[in-house]
Amino acid sequence: MPTRILVVEDSPTQAERLVAHLEAAGHIVQAATTAEAALDRLDAGAFDLVLSDVVMPGMGGYDFCRVVKAQQPELPVLLLTSLSDPMDIIR
C-alpha cells in the first residue's frame, strides 16, 4: 500500500520537485503552500506522513508541527530546512 504524504512547502518549485520525486517512488502525495492550507487538508483526509518546510510565511514549520502533534500525536512530521544554525536545528 503506498504511503500517503502531505508536502507543505511555500516554494512552488521545491514543492513540485518533492511531489515528483515522491510520486515517482510510488507514494500518494498532496501539496499545500501554507501551513493553514495544510491543516485544512489534514482535517479532510488521512495521511501517513507530513513533510514540511520550516521557514514559511504566516505560520512557520515549528508552530505547524506543534499544532499537528497536538491534534494527531501519532502522525510523523519531518521538518525540512536549509537553516544551519544549531539552535534552529535543536528547536
Please explain how this structure is put together:
This protein has 91 residues and is α/β, with parallel strands linked by helices. The protein has four helices and four strands; from the N terminus they run βαβαβαβα. The chain has a four-stranded parallel sheet with strand order 2-1-3-4, sandwiched between helices. α1 (12-24) links the parallel β1 and β2 (28-32). The mean pLDDT is 89.
Brief synopsis:
The protein has helices at residues 12-24, 35-44, 61-71, 86-90; strands spanning 4-8, 28-32, 49-53, 77-80.
Strand content: 15-25%
- Following the backbone from N to C, one meets helices and strands in this order, namely EHEHEHEH
Question: Mind describing the biggest β-sheet?
Answer: 4 strands, parallel
Adjacency order of strands in the biggest sheet: 2-1-3-4
Give the overall shape, derived from the CA principal axes. globular
State the share of residues found in helices, binned by percent: 40-55%
Category from helices, strands and their pairing = alpha/beta
- Runs in which pLDDT lies below 50 for 5 or more consecutive residues are none
Report the average pLDDT across residues: 89
Report the radius of gyration as a whole number of Å.
13 Å
Which descriptors apply to this entry?
alpha/beta, single chain, 4 strands, about 90 residues
